[in-house]
Every structure is written in C-alpha cells, then in structure tokens.
Design goal:
It is a single chain. It is built from three helices and seven strands. It is of the alpha+beta class and about 140 residues long. The protein has a single domain, classed as START domain (Alpha-D-Glucose-1,6-Bisphosphate, Chain A, domain 4), CATH 3.30.530.20. Strands 1-7-6-5-4-3-2 form a seven-stranded antiparallel β-sheet. Strand 4 and strand 5 form a beta hairpin. It is globular, with a radius of gyration of 15 Å.
C-alpha cells in the first residue's frame, strides 16, 4: 500500500485551514500532481460533496471522483475515491496551536485487483510526489490567516 503522512505547522487559524482544505478543488493550487480539480456538487461543502480531481502521470491523466465522507468543522475531513484499480483515502486533521494550527495530512493509496502487482513502485513514487505536495501545501497554508 502506498502511504504518506506528514504534519505541517502553519500560522493559519484552524478555521481558515479547514475551510481551505475542505474544498478539495483547492488541491490544484498546492499539489503539483493535480492538473485540475472541480467541485461537482452544490455548496455548501459537507458530507457527500464530490470533487473531480485529475492527476497527471507518465501514463496519462487519471481522473478520480472523490467523495467527502467525513466532515467535522475545523477538525477533520476525509476524502475517498474508488476506481476499478485503486482506492484513495485522504484524511486531513487540524489541531489548534498557540500561533495557528498543525495540519496532519494522511494519504493512503491502495491498488485493487491486478494493480496490486504495482504496489511497491506506486509506494515509492508516492513518497516523492507526496513530499512535493506537502511543500506546496505549506506555502498555501502560510498565505492564509
């Protein structure tokens, strides 16, 4: 299983960080692997909201339909996408701090079916892309207040 977990300390308030991260269409602004991301359901964002996220890859773009499965204001959001070949689960937790907040980002990518044979290469590539994504997220969160 490809798994990546990182914590980010940011001067952003928990409320600002949550609002930004709960709108998964913002991923294209901070994640270099995302070529585009769109909200597919009407506002307000909450459990059941859907996002179409297109990832660039050497084999071509991959489109994932993410569903918001957990929504705890200012605390936690969980996004899940399933295809024939993989399951992606992104869990974002926010913890208040004296000077902002700490964001925990946990990304879990599990190959399904025959794609399981690619688990190790996917895991290794996920570590590289995850590190780049976290740097982009750190920059984006630092601009929030």
């Amino acid at each position: 299983m490809a798994h990546f977990r990182k914590s980010i300390d940011t001067p952003a308030s928990p409320e600002a960080a949550f609002e930004y991260l709960a709108d998964f269409s913002n991923a294209e602004r901070w994640d270099p692997t995302v070529s585009s991301a769109d909200l597919l359901t009407p506002l307000p964002i909450g459990v059941g909201a859907r996002f179409e996220v297109r990832l660039g890859s050497p084999a071509g773009d991959i489109t994932l339909d993410y569903r918001l499965t957990r929504f705890e204001p200012n605390t936690c959001v969980v996004f899940e996408a399933k295809t024939k070949y993989l399951r992606s689960l992104d869990t974002i937790e926010i913890e208040p701090r004296a000077n902002g907040c700490r964001v925990y980002y946990d990304a879990d990518l599990r190959p399904r079916g025959a794609a399981y044979l690619l688990d190790l290469p996917i895991h290794l590539a996920f570590q590289v892309s995850g590190a780049r994504s976290v740097k982009g997220l750190e920059r984006a969160l630092a601009r929030l207040r």
